[in-house]
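testing teh design pipeline on a random one, pls ignore if ur not involved
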């Protein structure tokens, strides 16, 4: 009984710490959305050009020769929908955006509500399985969270992306410039560490892209085997 009680308490403590992280993220981005509206600044990016460069890198995951479904974790106001319309009008894409900020989801629905094959939900867990998933910038702003807890959040998010993706997922991380300490409140990663985590945990093929002139990296995780086969049925 004592062991079971201790394990239950540990799970509760972990859940409580993660809940605090999600609440902090929601508050941070809801404030940005309130101040700047549905713009790159509203999701804490400096401009549309760099926001869309991230989309270019993340979407290298996807095969655009046939229709697919896509989950967008941390979708903000749905900027990826506009980018896909302009740059990839074909093939048809079944899109779902998920965001922990209710303000963001409300703005996204106002912009894209009523569009066929486009939907948005409020939350931090992906509620469906799709061919692919993307997450742009969701690991960057750790605020005052302890590093250990923030990395638990990253691991949980990567696990959720894997569990709900049939063919693969892509995420990005900030890189610290050599010889600098970086900005307080931001999370800087060694991309090889997270690539190693995904390769070992998921048995997936990983690719790190750093050749696009920004102080960050993109991690592409491709899934093979039975999960990938089921997406083609």
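output:
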């Amino acid at each position: 009984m004592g062991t079971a009680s201790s394990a239950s308490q540990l799970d509760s403590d972990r859940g409580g710490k993660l809940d605090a992280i999600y609440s902090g993220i929601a508050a941070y981005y809801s404030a940005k959305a309130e101040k700047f509206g549905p713009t790159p600044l509203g999701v804490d990016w400096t401009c549309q050009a760099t926001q869309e460069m991230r989309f270019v890198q993340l979407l290298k995951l996807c095969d655009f020769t046939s229709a697919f479904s896509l989950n967008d974790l941390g979708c903000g106001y749905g900027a990826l929908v506009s980018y896909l319309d302009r740059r990839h009008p074909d093939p048809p894409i079944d899109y779902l955006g998920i965001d922990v900020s209710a303000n963001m989801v409300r703005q996204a629905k106002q912009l894209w509500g009523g569009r066929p094959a486009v939907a948005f939900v409020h939350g931090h867990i992906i509620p469906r399985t799709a061919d692919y998933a993307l997450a742009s910038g969701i690991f960057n702003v750790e605020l005052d969270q302890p590093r250990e807890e923030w990395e638990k959040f990253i691991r949980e998010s990567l696990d959720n992306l894997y569990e709900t993706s049939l063919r693969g997922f892509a995420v990005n991380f900030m890189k610290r410039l050599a010889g600098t300490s970086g900005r307080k409140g931001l999370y800087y990663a060694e991309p090889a560490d997270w690539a190693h985590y995904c390769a070992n945990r998921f048995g997936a093929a990983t690719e790190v892209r750093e050749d696009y002139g920004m102080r960050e990296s993109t991690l592409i995780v491709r899934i093979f085997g039975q999960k990938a086969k089921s997406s083609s049925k």
